[in-house]
Amino acid sequence: MQLRYSFRLYPDPGQQRALAKAFGCARVIYNDAVRAREDARTAGLPFPTAGQLSTRLITDAKRTSARSWLGEVSAVVLQQSLRDAETAYRNFFASLKGDRKGPRTGAPRFKSRKDTRQSIRFTANARWSITDKKRLNLPKIGAVKVKWSRALPATPTSVTVVKDAAGRFFASFVIDTDPAADAARMPDTVRTVGIDLGLTHFAVLSTGEKIDSPRFLRRAEKKLKKAQREMSRKQKASKNREKARLKVARAHAHVADARREFHHQLSTRLISENQGIAVEDLSVKALARTKLAKSVHDAGWSSFLGMLQYKAERYGRTLVKIGRFEPTSQTCSACGVKGGPKPLDVREWTCAACGAVHDRDHNAAINVKTAAGLAVSACGAPVRPGVIPAQREETGSHGIPTGNRAA
Active-site residue numbers? Predict the structure, then answer.
């Protein structure tokens, strides 16, 4: 499978100017491709092909005085930007036809120079390399200093240079991993676990372990409010406002980085210790429309479940998602009797049938494991999961996915 390895870059002032020029040229080519497509649609003409756009927008444009500056950046960067526009239209049409899974995507839009995230991509034919001094040598940019936090397991096939909202630069390498080698790195185990995600505790395991929710956003809320208040008082389009905007962006980036690190550490630990993991397929989008929206976003359940998913596939583990309508909080894990709905403030309850006293979250985690077929009965045989209701489509949740190229 393909994975991305992201590393921090530290370009010098000259390299930052060269990168800014490359970002701008890539943006212009992308917008020109979208404009050409829109003009053809308005005129009722067939869409121009990728080859026609490449000739018109890159090769011929470089020979004109108005666009001669396109020759100052790598041609691969311009070609990849053109491919990004083609991919955006391909995904849009596939979404309209229903051939693409997930939420419906919107039509490609023009990029702005004020976008907080900018990126360019270099493929193998761009002749980028890693120097003997462990610097990333990019064509027409130079050898950029890299902070290597870990070793690359294989030779990368491409590298994407990203500048985020906080003004930080990253290099994201695409690596083809060996599934057999990755699975051999994990210790052999027959353990299985069920996970109940929540807000009071981030996760409660079927083993009884409770993992506290760090609440990164809540803890940084005071600092964020102060930074945002200072930015609102600056004059628009001024240098002081840009400095204040960067301060706000860096504060948000610090929260996001801390949350991502927490998710990575916990998901890696669970994958390493267990052969089978059961979770509930939560409707995060629906929960994010309630009064608990800020806490739900702060927890980052979707990001955590995504990490569990790809790590399970990478290391040969089993991840089972049960239906979101399974009554895990209503069913007694001891006798299986359904006790009915319970308010959220009820954290402990007693089964009327068998008298067992249950912690709400621990009981739910056990039921998640049982419903996934990972539980083991007294005779040692696996317990078969019950019938899981068909999942219903959420209404009003057709957003435009942004994607994460520097994961």
Answer: 196, 280, 361
